Amino acid sequence: MKVVIIGAGLTGACCALALAGEGHGVTVIDEHASGEATTASSGSAILYQTKDSPLHVGLTRKSLSLWDDLAAACDIPFSREGSHVLFAGEEQEEFVAQRAAMLRECGVAVERLARGDLEGRMPALHPDIRGAYYCPEDGEAHPRQSCIGILSAAVKAGVRVCLGERFEGIGSVGGTHVRTSEQTIACDAVIVAAGHWTPAIVAPYGLDVPSIPERGEQLLTYPAPRLLKGRIISARYTRGKKAGAFVGLALGQEYDGRIKIGSTREPGQTERVTSERARAALLEELALAFPELARMPIERQTVGIRSGSPTGLPIVARGDQPVTLIAIDGMGGNGVAYAPLVADIAADMLAGRESEFAAGLRLQA
Questions:
Q1: Under DSSP, is residue 187 helix (H, G, I), strand (E, B) or coil?
Q2: Which of 11, 105, 132, 214 has a CB 3.0–4.6 Å from the CB of 267, allowing a cystine?
């Protein structure tokens, strides 16, 4: 089967590699460089501790396994250094403890650490922090480096990549084809993995993708000596992910030494502009956990647009009239975590196979 993938971000790269592995002829198109748009502003964490249901835990378990495989096959920066969820009072601890109990019931290892246990694991804590819950199985993958590595592996497997080409439309007269600013590509099916642009691309072809765009902002420090291991998140962050707009602490040190301070979530906002209000709120959140880190100079502030879904689960939608079309969207803050998983689901859809998670995700047809 000849397949065109619209979008050379992380999800598109994973789709390309998965389909090439099944013998399909794959072409990837993107107006931008690989991983330059949505992927470039994504977080890198793949976490059990932010999941709030057994279904989400199952998706994360499968995704972590797929990331293990990708790291071995593509030589990309993926590690499992765990995560800590900090709590500052009884109410916060009760919430995090309930989440930890659910994870343990699903077979995930989670350990409660008192404040004294955290000394030596991380920088000096705010006096109000009482402890943390630690999950050693959580991981992280650098979004853009992973995207480039996976797409390079796909090219070695025979995938054709056409960057700098603007998508202009899908046609069915005379056979299915995709038109770009540079060429017309004959194909049997089209996969759209174009971030928050996906709904607008597929809507003219009868496919409704009910994703919800949301803006997120993060801060990056200048490169620093290694201060953090794994991901550190606040109870406010894990709780806020269910509450619409919020600011919560999600902290990690990148492979280049920069400390990434996230993040905000602003549903319905699609302007790629940073705000001083978000910067101040993020630094305030950081100071509530690590006062000394909050005084570090900030090199830059980033903003990205991601798409959530009404159910909080990925959307993988298929339509067959007038063309075979699969749309992938709605992963919210789990774009990096779920990219290889939704790629496998898309491959199952094209092959007519039942996906392991089809019932839970309520995949559209």
A1: coil
A2: 214
Q: Is the pLDDT of residue 57 over 90?
A: yes
CA atoms 139, 145, 148, 154: torsion sign: negative
Is residue 365 very low, low, confident or very high in pLDDT (cuts 50, 70, 90)?
very low
pLDDT at residue 42, as a whole number: 81
Note the maximum CA span of the chain: 70
pLDDT at 242: 56
Predicted TM-score (pTM) of the model is 0.94
Average pLDDT across the chain, whole number: 92
Q: Which CATH architecture has domain 2-42+144-211+311-360?
A: 3-Layer(bba) Sandwich (3.50)
Task: Give exposure, 97-130, as e/b (b: 16+ Cβ within 10 Å).
Answer: eebbebbeebebebeeeeeeebeebbeebeeebb
CB distance 195 to 9 below 8 Å: yes
Is 212 in contact with 26 (CB distance < 8 Å)?
A: no
Domain edges within the chain: 2-42+144-211+311-360, 83-136+212-308
Counting every residue written for the chain, the total comes to 365
